[in-house]
Design brief:
globular; 5 helices; 220 residues; 26% helix; alpha+beta; archaeoglobus fulgidus dsm 4304 fold
Length: 220
């Protein structure tokens, strides 16, 4: 699929922060997508071990959630671990994986954050600019902000805010199981994002596309 090259990855942490602030202004978070027109959804995950990054992108049919393509790539990890700069650590290997896809997903769900980030540009937002496709962040842990715990039933949700800004929802994807943190990455809105994640999560806590990508990234 086509990738929109936005910048080089060989940056210092301070240069990366400066770039994040510039790119964050381009993120679109108020564009709902029609879930009835979605045919393919991609789950995206990266496993980093011993300074090697293993990326996996799994494309599933929607709404059946049957996998039809799995792409895995491996690269030396190019960037140090710095909180808030995950996308510079995982971005290069993911771009390699996206470029190999034979199917073009309608939406990408990342195991990570969208705008629910100190500078409003987590990995789903950052890579969403490269993909120019709807992208959603679905994280397991809070990175920033405050929220009230949602109800215990599947589908319960509450708003997460940071410094007065509404960044996304804390959503119960399975009854009596810890919630996940959902935010828009790019070219979506929060209601569309939450709706899709819930429809992609028939059984476990994490959406099936992310679970498949996580397993594929960990296998090698």
């Amino acid at each position: 699929m086509k990738i929109h090259h936005r910048h080089d990855w060989n940056l210092t942490p301070q240069q990366a922060i400066t770039l994040q602030k510039e790119l964050a202004a381009e993120i679109i978070t108020d564009r709902p997508f029609n879930i009835n027109t979605i045919n393919l959804v991609a789950g995206v995950d990266v496993s980093v071990k011993h300074h090697v990054s293993n990326a996996a992108v799994v494309v599933v049919t929607f709404p059946e959630l049957e996998p039809i393509e799995t792409v895995t790539t491996t690269l030396p990890t190019p960037f140090p671990y710095v909180p808030g700069l995950l996308s510079f650590r995982e971005g290069p290997v993911l771009i390699e994986a996206f470029a190999q896809l034979q199917h073009e997903p309608d939406v990408f769900i990342f195991d990570g954050m969208g705008i629910m980030h100190p500078r409003r540009i987590g990995i789903a937002s950052h890579l969403g600019l490269w993909l120019q496709k709807p992208a959603i962040g679905c994280g397991k842990k809070r990175l920033v902000g405050e929220f009230d715990m949602p109800g215990n039933e599947k589908g319960s949700r509450s708003r997460l805010t940071d410094k007065g800004a509404y960044l996304g929802d804390v959503v119960r994807t399975r009854t009596n199981v810890k919630p996940v943190f959902i935010s828009v990455g790019h070219l979506a809105d929060i209601d569309s994002a939450v709706d899709l994640v819930l429809r992609c999560t028939p059984k476990y806590r994490l959406p099936r596309p992310i679970r498949l990508a996580h397993n594929a990234a960990g296998e090698f």
